[in-house]
Design goal:
single chain; mainly alpha; MetI-like fold; 0% strand; flat; disordered C terminus; ABC_transporter_permease; transmembrane helix; MetI-like_sf
Length: 299
């Protein structure tokens, strides 16, 4: 009994040692900055100012309620999440199913699909800005496919096309990462399940619906939650391609925080925006986790 207790205690000790580096990074780069932002959100802190810092209570949070740009950015980011997350998840699963088949050049296709993910978003955004140009490749391709009936569009400067253009580019850039996660999940499914289904006369759709999807439930939950968090952080491509325009059609909350904090130097107000947005994303992630967990327990 004493030996078992000693081994268990030693196991906790080693576990804590391995967790310590990650815990230190978590405290340094997430918890401490959040607590600092929470404190600053109750002050009139400016980025560069000779005026002393004053405690102003909930003034910044009251100001947030009347901030039209904040609500416009929040609406845009929810629209982005609602459209991009399901589409990117579905495309990633489709690509994973494709590259998981025993066909020639599978490794080549895996590399090609994953390449945009390892490319810096700023570089990707600059390249796609040229592609979306009225004289760019996309307009030229659409003209050829429509036999000349397509009229060139400046996607980035068009209020109706700018945000869909960013959505399409974001899906293309990020789908490779989710594809690899799904691919790892697919390769963990026992082949015997598919063999048994074949013997029972199941077709490909029935195998996918009754075997593949249930076996990928945990993987799908991870992909959805991680993609949602990444989608809420939309900033780089908007900053490079449109800077929130035209007419705030692509404006986001993170861009608003950046503008308030670094352009207008309202650090206190930017901190209040950060705290509210962080808690909102955290709440959505917890709800997603709870719903997906409940689904697994029922099944």
């Amino acid at each position: 009994m004493a030996k078992m207790f000693y081994e268990k205690k030693r196991g906790f000790k080693y576990a804590f040692i391995f967790l310590l580096p990650g815990l230190a990074l978590l405290i340094t780069f997430i918890i401490i900055p959040f607590l600092s932002a929470f404190y600053l959100s109750f002050t009139n802190q400016r980025l560069i100012s000779r005026l002393p810092i004053r405690f102003i209570g909930l003034t910044n949070y009251k100001k947030l309620l009347d901030d039209d740009l904040f609500w416009k950015g929040l609406f845009n980011i929810f629209k982005f999440v609602i459209i991009v997350v399901p589409l990117q998840t579905a495309f990633a699963l489709a690509l994973a199913l494709l590259v998981n088949k025993r066909i020639k050049f599978t490794k080549f296709f895996r590399t090609v699909y994953f390449m945009p993910t390892v490319t810096t978003m700023v570089v990707v955004a600059v390249i796609w800005t040229f592609l979306y140009n009225p004289e760019g490749f996309i307009n030229l391709f659409l003209q050829k496919m429509s036999f000349g009936s397509w009229q060139p569009v400046d996607f980035i400067k068009n209020e109706n096309w700018a945000f869909p253009a960013i959505m399409f580019m974001s899906i293309w850039q990020g789908v490779g990462f989710q594809m690899l996660i799904f691919l790892a999940g697919l390769q963990e499914i026992p082949v015997s399940l598919y063999e048994a289904a074949t013997i029972d006369g199941a077709n490909n759709w029935q195998k996918f619906r009754k075997i593949t999807l249930p076996q990928l439930k945990n993987t799908t939950a991870f992909v959805i939650i991680s993609t949602t968090i990444l989608a809420f952080r939309l900033f780089d491509q908007v900053k490079v391609m449109t800077d929130g325009g035209p007419n705030a059609a692509t404006y986001t909350v993170v861009l608003h925080i950046y503008n308030m904090g670094f352009k207008r130097q309202y650090i206190g107000y930017a901190s209040a925006l950060t705290v509210v947005f962080f808690l909102l994303v955290l709440a959505i992630s917890v709800i997603q986790r709870f719903l997906l967990k409940e689904e697994r327990e029922v099944s």
